[in-house]
Amino acid sequence: MMLGMPAPLVRWSKNMLRRRVPEILQFEATECGTCCLGMVLAYFGRYESLDKLRGMCGATRDGISAGSLARAAKQAGLNVKGFGVSAAELAKLPMPQIIFWNFNHFVVLESLQDGVAAVLDPAVGRRRLLQSDLEAGYCGVTLCMEPGEGFVRTGKPASALSEVLIASRGAGRAISAIALVGFGLAVLMALVPALTSIFIDYVLIKKGVDSWKFWFMFGIGVFGLLLGPVLWMQRVGVLKLQTWLALSMATRIVAKMFSVPMEYFSRRFGGEIGGRVMLADAVAGTVSGALVSMIAASMQVLVVGLMMASYSPYLTAVSFLLLSAHAALVGWISRQTNDLDRRLALERGRYESQVLTAFNLMEHSRASGSSAAMGQRVLERHIAVVNAEQKHAPFTALMASLPGSITGILMAVITGLSALEVLHGVFTIGVFVAYTAMAYLLITPFNQIVSGFAQISASSGSFDRVNDLLQVASEEEFAATQGLPESSELLVSNVHFDYGASPVLKGISLQVSPGSFVGVVGSVGSGKSTLLGVMARVLKPVSGEVTVGGKDIRTIDSAHLSSVVAFVPQKDQIFEGTVLENLSMWDPAITEEQAMDACKACMIHEDIMRRAGGYKARLREGGSDLSGGQRQRLALARAVVRKPAILILDEATSALDGANEAAVLENLRAKISTIVFATHRIGTMRLAEKIVVVDRGAVKESGSHEELMQSAGMYSQLVAASQGAVL
Questions:
Q1: For a surface tag, which of 1, 162, 243, 640 has the fewest beta carbons within 10 Å of its beta carbon?
Q2: Is the pTM above the cut of 0.85?
Q3: In whole angstroms, how far apart are CA 32 and each of 20, 24, 41?
Q4: Do residues 252 and 167 touch, judged by C-beta distance below 8 A?
Q5: CATH number corresponding to 160-470
Q6: Distance CA 195, CA 307 (A)
Q7: Is 79 helix (H, G, I), strand (E, B) or coil?
Q8: Thinking of the domain 20-147, which architecture would CATH place it in?
Q9: Which residues, other chains included, contact 423 with Cβ-Cβ below 8 Å and sequence gap of 6+?
Q10: SS3 for 249?
Q11: Which residues contact 199 (CB under 8 A, 6 or more apart)?
Q12: CATH 3.40.50.300 for the 490-726 domain, yes or no
């Protein structure tokens, strides 16, 4: 212990000097291990995106194990040692550590000294726990890590400011114009007190030539009149640039959302992702607005600072020293509140997700009598947001009141020092008035710069949610080939596909001949839906390839893919809009006649014509004003309207009765050259020319219904089981 210092002060000084582990909060409950690894890597100087870490850890919605975490850490170049020790012995091991918590969670132990543990919990942020609390949560397993020979320090922390700077690359002229106007405005603002100083000293006090009075008053008046238009020009330019930057960032985020692999959405919950585009717009607006205002304010600080230095370099240096202390204080407070900002943004995201989930499950919760429980979950999330806001509120109030308080203190100090200069004969009365006026003109924009940095720092929590999407690697793009495939032969060759660490397709191969009608069947979890998703280029295989007419499906231009392969998933998606908009997906090339033809084939045309307005009738969000069978048939027609060469249906007729399902499939067969479909109704498989039986990610058998029944294999067992279920 340091001599004469109390233990709490010693502990505080050690905490201030110790390098802190960067905090990363989890977006979903199963990401704790991934976030912990990211924090430890960042502590040692390697910054990796959560998306890459999820891939390294094999993370899915079910989370990861300690073994997967250790393997991922070794892959990143860390030496990893696992220990089964008591909580009291953790302090003897190197820090930081990843410890197993409450048998279902991972946290980072940052330090343990004097019976107090500093813990970074990905779910709630940085916490300080007593030894007894640590012993209650710790489960006896810890992972200690340190850089190995292959460890490489790389990357840097992502920030909202860096994203705005990227977005501003195409706005160089606009930024230069704003800086130039800001410079001119600063000159005008600084000249007014300078001229006032001359007027006071040489006209009022020394009783100068009377003609000076007119010209000084005229000059001050002209400068004052010019201030208004120039200030208006600056604010209009700032607003336009802010709007442009916000739009640029939002466009980038929307484009990113549509370019990430589908596997990303399997690791995320739709409700949490849904609010990110709007959140991105808010972050972009806040950060870009702060940045642009800081550019204009910087010009004023520069010009006014130089003018003040021409009067007194000493006082100007003192002024900037005091302003630097103010900036350091605000920066320190901002760093202390960063964790609270992140926690508040995270809780708001969870609340939005829970509300959206409750809306989506409203019918089910009422039917099952669980509305009260669902409402309780929403209320709990809202309470968590309110609690986070309450913890954040004192710091928000402090940051709001600080500029005014600091301005008053600085003006009092500068005025007092300037008055001393007058008493010592250094300043005249006119210079005193001008210098104090300029001091105010210096402090105000400096406060804007400091507040701008504070706003950018405060947006870190919201930006983390947006950046989680931005850092996802876009789906690999292949050079698009000219022309369309010459035939509709679909060939799947040795395809492997994993969901995280769980293999789903294991070297599967399949040939679908042109003009064939192929059924895919298998038990729940066999991989048939995944196979159809890979065949339609909705999912990207780990290895292997899918070709259409000899062309790799990845090289077919996305704009023409829907005319080659159309995919109808299990879950139909109907949005608020007209029937025709739902069928055409806003493609003006699709006419109402084409839509009618497709709807007739899918046996939904008559239902549409019974609605007021027919194909111009508006549908509700999610198709809530349609039956399940109507929604599915509309989704089928959406795919058929583009007249694809190959149609892939994944349980796309599950809401139809057997007779209607068979009739729709027969109609589709007459319009589409090649069809591959999966259905839970084994009886419908009799319509298929070829039946493919999938089990545990591999093709077990294939052939016609009669051939497979005679072989007495898995297909015959599925048929027998379905008949038994019917009986």
A1: 1
A2: no
A3: 19, 9, 14
A4: yes
A5: 1.20.1560.10
A6: 12
A7: strand
A8: Alpha-Beta Complex (3.90)
A9: none
A10: helix
A11: 212, 213, 216, 217, 220, 430
A12: yes
